[in-house]
Write a structure and sequence with these properties.
88 residues; mainly beta; 3 strands; elongated
């Protein structure tokens, strides 16, 4: 099954709560292609064991990581910039 919707919540087992959900129905003669028909489902819960892929419907946008500072950055040659290590 293939569905789209607004992600309202999830848990560590990847159980998903989707709102405004629409299912894209498969072609009965070819289960690998969509028939072009849809079915409105509304609010649903998808069990994490059956979730194969979660992706945005539209493009993605890179944002700054709020959990790193300049000391954790990686410089241009791939080495850790400003990283230190302690050994015994």
């Amino acid at each position: 099954r293939e569905v789209t919707g607004v992600l309202k919540g999830y848990d560590p087992l990847v159980n998903l709560v989707l709102d405004e959900c629409v299912e894209y129905l498969r072609d009965p003669e070819d289960s690998y292609s969509l028939s072009g028909e849809t079915r409105n489902l509304g609010l649903i819960v998808c069990r994490g064991t059956s979730v194969m892929l979660v992706a945005p419907e539209e493009g993605t946008q890179e944002i700054a990581n709020p959990f790193t500072d300049d000391a954790d950055a990686v410089d241009e040659d791939g080495d850790d910039a400003g990283a230190t290590a302690a050994t015994e």
